[in-house]
Amino acid sequence: MKNKRIYICEDSAEGIFTAIYDAWSSRYGHEYNRIEVSMNNENGINLELFSEYIYVKTDEEKAVKVAKAIKEKISMEAYDMVCHGIWSEKAEKADIVYRFLILGFSMGAKVVNHLANDTVMSLFEMNRNVSNEVHHFLGFLRFKEINNHILLAKINPKNDIVRLIAPHFSDRLSNGNFIIYDEKRKTSIVHKAGFPWIYTIGEHLNLDKAGNFSNAEEEFQSLWKTFFETIGIEARTNHKLQRNNLPLRFRNHMTEFNK
Amino acid sequence: MIIQENLSIQNKLEILTDAAKYDVACTSSGVDRKGTAGPGMGNAVAAGICHSFSADGRCISLLKILFTNECIFDCKYCINRSSNDVVRTSFTPDEIATLTMEFYRRNYIEGLFLSSGVMRSPNYTMELLCESLRLLREVHHFNGYIHCKAVPGADPALIEITGWYADRMSINLELPTADGLKALAPHKTRKNILRPMKQIQLGRNENLHLPFMNQNNKSIYNNIDSVISSSTMDSLNIHSSRGNFIKEDSSNGNLLSGTLSGQHIPYENDIYINSRKPQALLNNISQNLSYASPDSSTLGLVKRPAVDRGFVPAGQSTQMIIGATPESDYQIISVAEALYQNFDLKRVFYSAFIRVNEDNSLPVLPGGPPLLREHRLYQADWLLRFYGFSASELLTEDRPNFNVLLDPKCNWALGHLEVFPVEVNKADYYTLLRIPGIGVKSAGRIIKARRTSRLSFEDLKKMGVVLKRALYFITCNGKMMYPTKIEENYITNQLISLKEKLPLGIGDQITYQQLSLFDDVNFNLDIPKYMERR
């Protein structure tokens, strides 16, 4: 019996596509390959016996080849689905994308509708989950004004969604300067008035300085809290419904829930 | 009236939010608009975005405030009635604009919902609302969502200019019948409420169909008055003692109400009416489309603003208070039906009466606001808008109220066992929709799927049909799921024993984690796919 080969790659589209490229071109047999994204938690991964671990070095050239192949041999829709899936929080996402592509390269464009298949269904569910969270953050994200009229929002999403909410806020506040910071991944969207948004990785931003809110900020926070606390109808108080619609995990960064 | 001078903006906001909170609608839906490249900010998303949820579980999407609570009207149900001893204050248009802009850029809100008490006169108030909107749109270049109330009795020119600035407008019907209005809102008349509603409807049609026409012709206003005083008034001018306001026309089938064969029938795009109206009625409607002809312009009383966002592009809505006056559910949904058919309303909202004033003409409700009744009305509202039901099918004069224990569709099916069981492999779309346990989505899937193969009960289950409800009403390939009595009492008991999914906090069963039809606090039907709740 052949040993299993487990490809460990970086948690990004480039990383996962490189791993898929390597696994595919090894001709070792898809059923013996598995792709996992490396977790940056301290525990590391649970190593399996009788498995060969291969640490994949992200290679942009390979990644571009895979991306091109998906767009040309399957469809643009499948490519979108794969990319959104890669931004999902699901731990097995890299392998699901790998299995989806194996199926996709043999079935072609119609693979996206093949929901009876477990792999396709998983990827579909991951997409739904990501889209749901994107929609939630369009509403639940809160900006605070720091110096120089810059708006700063900190979020803590389950999925990696900053790049998916960026177009909405750039359209809405096209003349504004704002930063959306993902605390968990330490990534951010930076938008300067009149320019396209950019995505940055790592803590280039000195967010300690952001503790200094503008003079007007406190006043508007307090006005908003007043509005929020007054708008509810006492005779209809229904905290269960409130929690169902606005789960607690979103509330940390929401002005109206900060005491 | 005590008018407090020199209040801080904080105090004003508290007073004028508190005074606005009983208004139901807070949806920001109905219009898609990209941001602008120029100065200013804002865009709009058709599905609407909820920004927060208040302690009552309702969505907060818009900054919902009154311009003023200095009201000269004395509506008995209203906290701001002129005879109440409450602190009175007003915003200035500048304060409204600043609050909206600053809240919007911090992503607290989708936009503004501006309502108001009537200060000095309807025109005086409407001018102030208009000025607030003008500041936002023309000075601050705000491109987000605005919902604005029209004050009953305001000049049509003011209504029109507001319509060019606002995305949605609403005029509250307040009470389902003219008698109710007379009893509780002595300063409001049905006519003053329906007139701006008609004006907005016609203006919207004109704006949608003939976008380049801009004439100065006021002849339509005579027309509007005649419309209101003739057929539509009749249909809405319901006396609580007289139940036959919807005349059944047996030759046309019972889906057609008398209101539809009236003189002035506006352009009609309701899905179920289109699919079911006979030719005679269609002709009648097309003749009456002459509104849109160039010699009868509704618009053109004022100059359009430089940035044309359309005339009330997200349509209009209204709201009725439920349980303050003795109208039956039958009367209420008949009024809603007439509003959808004759005024093209996007939504009718129902608001369970909350007793905020001591007044012996108001009912005492020891059990709190009638939330379950409100919920049943929303369910019936869906049946009117999306399921092809008419009000007179759901309820009758003899049975004028909904069953507390059963949703309106089950209730209807139990009263019409003679049409069941229905063969799922043959029945048309609208027949499928009438089966308990089958909804818009599953009916659509059935139609699609049976093109390729005959469906079994197993298939139906996969398509989302709730078989434990549907099984009494359907056959698959000529067979029922299992032998069962088709008898009203038996099925009623069976259906009641299945627990209905009620919104959280309503009724005794509050363990369910799913919202079904409670979209009044939430989104419209045009929610994107990924937002569909399973």
Automatic annotation (TrEMBL), chain A:
Domain of life: Bacteria
UniProt cross-references to InterPro entries, sorted A to Z: DNA_repair_put, DUF4130
Domain DUF4130 positions: 92-256
Pfam families: DUF4130 (PF13566)
Name this polypeptide is given: Probable DNA metabolism protein
Taxon lineage: Bacteria, Bacillati, Bacillota, Clostridia, Lachnospirales
Automatic annotation (TrEMBL), chain B:
Keywords: Iron, Iron-sulfur, Metal-binding, S-adenosyl-L-methionine
GO MF term (any one): catalytic activity
Protein's recorded name: Putative DNA modification/repair radical SAM protein
